[in-house]
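Example record used in the benchmark description.
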Amino acid sequence: MAETDPSGSIRENRADLEKTAGRAYTIVVLLGKNGKGLGERRQIARGLEQQGMTVWIPEDAIPREMSPSLAEEEMLTHGDPDLVFLDVDSWGTATEFGQFHDHRTVAPKLRVLVRVQYHPLYQTQPSYLSDVYLTHLAVFGHVYPIGAAGAVNSKNARDLTTLLATRYAEVKRIKPELTR
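Model output (structure tokens):
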């Protein structure tokens, strides 16, 4: 990777940071659509960073002259992320899901956020994409419905990402053997 890739410095400093902080160091990657979605991911990142996590958003970290599809894969496979959140809300993010849903290194870390009407357990019209969601759900168990209008305790992408990342960091500190 290029020198601008933050993964090398994160990997080199991770042990020192954990020792200094006296707790596990959690790296979260936020993937999703641009525009309004990018602004929302930046808001989520600020909240998680305030809780001591490192958050990587590809649009902010990858130089424009680099291919995002190649650079993202390099970061996700060699950058030591703990969690990778993907809010599937466009054809581009569906393509990212297709790229990583069965990647042996990335897939277990992947937390997929899907509009409830496309979630394999709640949909009314099955599709190829919802079929792949079902496979990911069955194998890795990380496909979460979001945006259920009127549903009890419904979560949006920001709330669900924050809830899951915060709990993961807590488990990593208290019972690190569960996160390996």
